[in-house]
Design a protein that fits this description.
Blueprint lengths: L9 H24 L1 H6 L3 H22 L6 H28 L6 H13 L2 H11 L5 H24 L5
């Protein structure tokens, strides 16, 4: 199998890795400032971990995209592995969220579940497409990165502000 052509994706991968690194730092600072409130919440520690895990997907996937002459099957496999690891963290967070009476209505929890899983599915689908040699898979990966950024910023807001209300 041939290396995947990511020449046009180089700048995207570099920018994504840098932005995700900064966002991960913001989330960790938010956690450290409000750690008492986070550990007191039954689902907040897992939600925090899942959020960081999702942002780390962007960092490691972006770095993997920058490996020169990488075979499509290797890059696709890496993307699949990273997405699955983050999905496991999301599953743990969602399980804890639905097990508690805190955190809003069932409808709000379902919305959080859709966002949590939905942000990672494009990365997973993109990984499968890339692994099969379909360069359009990188479009799915990009969509997943954007969704992860949006969801993680929302979660950072919760960790910084909303838990103090």
């Amino acid at each position: 199998m041939d290396p995947i052509a990511i020449d046009g994706w180089h700048d995207f991968a570099v920018a994504s890795a840098g932005a995700a690194g900064a966002l991960a730092g913001l989330i960790i600072v938010a956690m450290s400032v409000n750690i008492k409130e986070i550990v007191q919440g039954s689902a907040l520690p897992a939600r925090s971990g899942a959020t960081i895990g999702s942002v780390v997907v962007i960092v490691v996937a972006s770095v993997a995209m920058l490996i020169p002459d990488q075979l499509a099957v290797a890059l696709g496999g890496e993307l699949i592995l990273f997405a699955i690891a983050a999905l496991v963290l999301q599953w743990v967070a969602l399980r804890q969220m639905f097990a508690t009476t805190q955190g809003g209505s069932r409808r709000a929890k379902i919305g959080d579940a859709v966002l949590g899983v939905g942000q990672l599915l494009p990365v997973l689908i993109g990984g499968v497409l890339v692994a099969t040699g379909n360069p359009a898979g990188l479009l799915f990966v990009a969509a997943g990165f954007i969704l992860i950024f949006i969801t993680s910023v929302l979660n950072a807001w919760v960790l910084m502000v909303e838990i103090l209300r």
